[in-house]
Design brief:
about 325 residues; mainly alpha; 12 helices; flat
């Protein structure tokens, strides 16, 4: 009886990912990123019960690895700072509530160490001491393993892992451009430009020289920033992304159906051609058999036809027996 593959054998488990994204979405849209608010959402969702109901020890360890890998995924870029903080809190919560003995450790690849250091520096600059406390507690408790790869390599695992889509609503967006599009900033730019023009007109030596700024620099800057923000909103709009995915799937289905139709037509035509060649070859073999021309070779994959009694006698006794 073949062995049934485990549902937790993959790197990520889709129902768990959906629940985690729901929790992090609620945490992201809140007004605070403190640990106490995350623990309140954790208790409200009853996330500690996800480890219950798994009887096998090996299955429990496998599921714990999946949960910790899911939390690490949201702790790393390209997600925004709030979601990454929630991923760190998830790592801490999953590690201390797991039922595996000994506990499964968190795997952090060395290639992600620069992103982790930048995250810690940003936390220090913003004064989020609870974020630093949670991370230092995991490190001091030896809950983190710094490994060469984010996932362990085992035999009989496909080379290409199952594709995991990135939640567009949790990505870190460029907010620096939006900060430039303010009335105070544009007014300051216009004042600097007018002061530059006034000083240039006062100096006779450079009055007729080439100017270093555009005449309508403030208005052109505002139009460019507005165009970029419009493009950004259209790009990260989930409804538009969903319609685009549906259109691509429809086009892909039409292409696949057309390719299937062409393949069936070619197969039928090739089958008729093969049938004619086989019937022609069979007629040639029947004609050769009726001529009684002794043994023949019927192809590379077929055995030779056995010799007749007359042919065996001639081969054994030679031509003298035929003359007698």
């Amino acid at each position: 009886m073949p062995r049934v593959p485990s549902i937790y054998a993959d790197t990520f488990y889709e129902p768990l990912t959906d629940d985690v994204e729901s929790l992090l979405g609620r945490f992201q849209h809140g007004d605070s990123i403190r640990l106490e608010r995350f623990t309140a959402l954790w208790r409200d969702a009853g996330f500690s019960d996800i480890f219950l109901g798994i009887a096998g020890r090996s299955e429990m360890r496998r599921f714990c690895r999946v949960t910790l890998a899911t939390a690490v995924k949201y702790f790393l870029p390209p997600y925004c700072y709030q979601v990454r903080v929630g991923g760190l809190y998830l790592m801490h919560a999953f590690y201390h509530t797991q039922l595996a003995v000994p506990p499964v450790r968190i795997r952090l690849a060395l290639r992600d160490w620069d992103d982790v250091e930048k995250f810690l520096r940003d936390s220090v600059a913003c004064g989020h001491l609870d974020v630093l406390y949670v991370y230092r507690k995991l490190v001091s408790g030896k809950a983190v393993d710094y490994t060469a790869m984010p996932h362990s390599l085992v035999f009989q695992r496909p080379k290409k892992a199952k594709g995991q889509q990135v939640c567009a609503g949790m990505l870190a967006r460029a907010t620096a451009v939006k900060e430039l599009l303010t009335e105070d900033y544009l007014e300051e730019v216009a004042n600097v430009q007018s002061h530059y023009r006034k000083m240039k007109n006062d100096l006779a030596e450079v009055r007729l020289q080439a100017t270093m700024t555009h005449a309508d620099f403030a208005s052109r800057l505002k139009d460019t920033l507005s165009e970029f923000l419009t493009w950004q909103q259209k790009t990260f709009n989930p409804t538009k992304d969903g319609r685009k995915d549906e259109e691509e799937s429809t086009e892909g289905g039409a292409c696949r159906s057309r390719a299937t139709l062409l393949a069936s037509i070619k197969k039928r035509g090739y089958g008729h051609e093969q049938g004619g060649s086989k019937s022609k070859r069979r007629r040639q073999e029947a004609a050769a058999d009726s001529s009684g021309s002794g043994p023949e070779w019927q192809g590379p994959n077929k055995t030779a036809r056995p010799l007749s009694l007359r042919a065996r006698t001639l081969k054994t006794l030679g031509k003298n027996a035929e003359k007698s």
